[in-house]
Amino acid sequence: MTLNDILQAAQGGQGVNNLATQFGLTPEQTQAAIQAMIPAFSTGLQKTAQDSSGLGGILSQLTSGMHQGAYTDPSQTGAAAAGAGGGVLGQIFGSPQITAQISQQASQISGVSPQIIQQMMPIVASMVMGGLMHTMSSQGLGGILGQLAGAVNSPGGLGSVVPPAGGQPQSGGGLGGLMGGLLGGLFGGGAGSSSANPQSAALQAGLNTLNSMFQGGVQVSQTHQQGLSDIFNSLTGQNRK
C-alpha cells in the first residue's frame, strides 16, 4: 500500500468523489489536485520520520483517533477534519508558509486554484493519517504503533531511547537506522539485536511496513519534483513547530 492506494480507497472508494462535491470540483480536477499533493505528503512524512521527535509526532497523530472519521465517513470531512489535519500539516511541513508554497506548487501542476488546494490539504492530511492507521490495524499492526506511541509519552519520549540527530548515526541511515537505535534502547542491546528479541523484531517489521506506506505511489514530473525539492530544502536549518 502507498499513500495513493490509501487515498483512492478512502470512504469505501468514494473519497475522491466526495471531496469533489465538497469543494465544487469535478472528480478529474480533484484527482489531479490529490495526485499533485501526494508527493509532498510522501516527502514530508519521510523527512519528518528521520528524527525521534518527528517520528514521535507522527505516531501520536496516528494513534490519536482523531483521523479515523475523515478516512471512513464523508460526513466527517468538515471543520473537525480540517482542524485535525492542520495539526498534521504543521507536523510534517513545519510552518504555514511551507504549506502555502506547496499549495502554489500543486496548483501549478494540477490547474486547481491554490486557495482550494490549501483548503483541501488539511482534510486530505487527516484522511492520510486515518488511512495509515486503518491499514496498519487491518494488518494486525495497530498495537505496535500503540506501543511506540506510548513511549512518546514516557519520560524523555522517544528521544530517551534514540540517539539525538547529531549523535552517532545508525547503520542504514534514515528511518531504518533510527529504528535500530530505538529498538535497541527499548529492549536492550544495540541496533543489531532486534532479530534476537521477538518483540523487538515485531516492532521493526511494523515500522518497516509503515515506512513503506510513506511512498507516494504516483508518477512525479521532473518539474514538480524540482519544485517540491526547492520548497523542502528551504526547511533546512529551520526548527519545526
Would you write up a description of this structure?
The protein has helices at 3-8, 10-13, 15-23, 27-48, 52-63, 68-72, 79-93, 96-110, 114-138, 142-152, 174-187, 198-213, 222-233. By secondary structure, the protein is mainly α.
TL;DR?
The chain has 241 residues and is an all-alpha fold. 69% of the residues lie in helices and 0% in strands. The chain contains 13 helices and no strands.
Strand content: under 5%
Task: Characterize the main sheet.
Answer: none
Poorly predicted runs of 5 or more residues = 159-174, 186-195
Global outline: globular
- The pLDDT mean sits at 84
H/E topology pattern:
HHHHHHHHHHHHH
Number of helices in the DSSP assignment? 13
Q: How many beta-strand elements?
A: 0
Radius of gyration: 18 Å
* Class by alpha and beta content: mainly alpha
What share of residues is helical? 55-70%
Quaternary assembly: single chain
Give the SSE layout:
Blueprint: H1 3-8, H2 10-13, H3 15-23, H4 27-48, H5 52-63, H6 68-72, H7 79-93, H8 96-110, H9 114-138, H10 142-152, H11 174-187, H12 198-213, H13 222-233
List keywords for this structure.
241 residues; mainly alpha; 13 helices
